[in-house]
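Encode chain A's predicted structure.
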Amino acid sequence: MLRRLYDWTLSLAARKSAEYWLAFIAFIESSVFLVPADVLFLPMAIARPDRAYRYALIATVASVLGGIAGWFLGHYAYEAVAKPVLEFYGKLDDFEALRISSGTGFILLMLVTSGLAHLPPIKVVTILSGVIGVNLWIFILSAIVARGARFLFLAWLLRKYGEPIRHFVEERLGLIAAAAAAILILLYIVVRYAL
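Encoded structure for chain A:
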């Protein structure tokens, strides 16, 4: 099923309505959807490198708005809506463990790492942010920075290197972003506990 969902999302890049689909998928990815917007963003930016930054802006704005929706889901509708979504994806136990052990600083760090490397999935972090009551304005600013950095960096890579970078991005960017995320987490731990 996951592969069919991935293929369907990828097929949307060829449609005239691709920008609307990109906005829609970036929005719902940040609160409930499984497939990341990159699946649609990458082929669109490769097909039209002159519009890569436009697509990055669309994806960023929609993703941040979706993150705000996730925050509201967590804050106002955790039991009725968010909890069943997390159960559906098999993430409820992980979520509850994070909920108990997380403070605002850690949530903001996870927002950056999920924005850059999808670790943990963005929908988990946006809902968790609402549940524990992270300040909405700080959340929005962090989401803009994290999601904007990801999409703008991808747009820059695709404009500069074109098709050859696509395979690199698809195969290795997650690892590079995960390494950067690990460094950020390590820095946070050092600053928080060692200093």
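The chain has a mean pLDDT of 76.
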